[in-house]
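queue> pop job 88
queue> type: inverse folding (structure -> sequence)
queue> payload:
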């Protein structure tokens, strides 16, 4: 039998049992010997060599996603593994479908975000364990926590996915009086509203409302679920009515806005009630029912005045003024808007005062009452200067300038059309000083004589 040449082996420190020299046996013999003593060698290495186990070595080589998936399978969470794997595939599919340059393409994939993988691992496995035990309320809570984890613009599709899971689970919970189901309906309404499915959103919000009637359930801010349901319904009904108005379905829009007003009142929010009354009154006006529109708009005026809501008050008064003008009731409109001015001054609402004076100024300007328009625009400009809004100051300044020009234009036109000596003197006097148009010829002549006698 051929033998390999002897090999001198240096003895490592700390291992005195190794010999200085050894002769390697034949290859076949050595292989059999190693296989026979493998268990003993592994046992020796485990006891005396502090290294990595196979699992630890694999954990270092594998990706974070792979390690989480392996751990799920080892612990028997096959459903969680399948769900996680499906979500990762869906994320990648959405990214590929959007293509380079899209917002999702610039984001990291789900498997490259360890913090999100940790959240998914933690709550998915807890939900699966709770489901096996039949604890559906705990399943719901874990799914809801996952939805909250992805409540950002990047992971909104994941949030929606877990809201849908919550909705399915909530149907199985029978021990909380319907609280989880109500919450799930609210979340599903939100998803559909964001996606533009207004009718479907309204259905979910209506179910949410029905489940909360008479309940004392509150959210984390202390607000009752019922008032929250009323707000959702007020908002969604208003959106529905707006879409109806786009296709001229005025009567359907009115019916929908009546329901919106009912929800706003029941919700106990005066701001909502004022907005609902304003929208309903405006819709009656669009439908040609001005006699019904004005009292409802007056209701919104009272609410906005009580709330010191300058913007809302201005919109309501403007709507009423337009209705009265469309009916040819100019004098009544002016009287009404003057009341608006008084109410704004009494409540110290500078914004509303600006709105009222601008409305009155425009009304007078359109009908050729330039002196009155000038006065109203002057007041609007003065009120705007008390507010810290440069665009508003610029706007009222423009109105003021236009009204002043119109006021001067009347006098200029009258003197130009007269074309007599006195009128020419008026015009020449005005051209010299560019001030307001003079109205007293004697004053003009006196000023000229005084200037001639006192050249300095």
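queue> result:
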């Amino acid at each position: 039998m051929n033998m390999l040449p002897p090999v001198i082996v240096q003895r490592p420190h700390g291992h005195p049992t190794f010999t200085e020299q050894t002769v390697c046996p034949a290859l076949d013999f050595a292989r059999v010997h190693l296989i026979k003593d493998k268990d003993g060698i592994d046992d020796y290495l485990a006891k005396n060599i502090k290294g990595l186990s196979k699992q630890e070595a694999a954990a270092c080589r594998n990706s974070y996603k792979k390690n989480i998936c392996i751990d799920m399978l080892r612990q028997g969470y096959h459903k969680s593994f399948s769900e996680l794997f499906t979500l990762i595939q869906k994320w990648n599919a959405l990214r590929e479908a959007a293509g380079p340059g899209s917002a999702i393409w610039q984001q990291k994939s789900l498997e490259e975000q360890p913090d999100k993988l940790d959240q998914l691992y933690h709550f998915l496995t807890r939900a699966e364990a709770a489901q096996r035990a039949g604890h559906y309320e705990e399943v719901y809570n874990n799914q809801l926590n996952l939805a909250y984890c992805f409540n950002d613009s990047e992971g909104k599709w994941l949030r929606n996915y877990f809201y849908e899971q919550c909705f399915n689970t909530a149907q199985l919970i029978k021990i909380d009086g319907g609280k989880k189901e109500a919450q799930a309906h609210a979340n599903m309404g939100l998803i559909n509203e964001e996606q533009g499915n207004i009718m479907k959103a309204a259905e979910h919000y209506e179910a949410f409302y029905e489940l909360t009637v008479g309940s004392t359930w509150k959210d984390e801010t202390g607000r009752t679920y019922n008032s929250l349901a009323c707000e959702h319904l007020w908002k969604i009904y208003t959106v529905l009515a707006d879409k109806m108005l786009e296709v001229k379905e005025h009567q359907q829009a009115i019916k929908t806005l009546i329901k919106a007003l009912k929800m706003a009142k029941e919700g106990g929010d005066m701001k909502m009630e004022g907005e609902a009354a304003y929208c309903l009154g405006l819709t009656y006006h669009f439908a040609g029912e001005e006699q019904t529109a004005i009292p409802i708009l007056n209701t919104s005026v009272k609410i906005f005045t009580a709330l010191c809501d300058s913007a809302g008050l201005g919109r309501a008064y403007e709507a009423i003024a337009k209705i009265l003008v469309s009916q040819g009731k100019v004098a009544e409109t002016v009287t009404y808007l003057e009341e608006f001015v008084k109410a704004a001054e009494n409540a110290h609402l500078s914004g509303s005062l600006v709105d009222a004076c601008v409305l009155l100024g425009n009304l007078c300007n359109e009908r050729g009452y330039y002196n009155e328009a000038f006065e109203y625009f002057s007041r609007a400009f003065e009120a705007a200067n008390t507010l810290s809004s440069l665009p508003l100051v610029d706007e009222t300044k423009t109105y003021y300038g236009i009204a002043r020009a119109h006021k001067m234009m009347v006098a200029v036109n009258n003197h130009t059309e007269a074309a007599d000596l006195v009128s020419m003197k008026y015009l020449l006097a005005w051209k010299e000083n560019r001030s307001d148009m003079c109205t007293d010829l004697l004053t003009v002549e006196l000023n000229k004589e005084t200037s001639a006698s006192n050249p300095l």
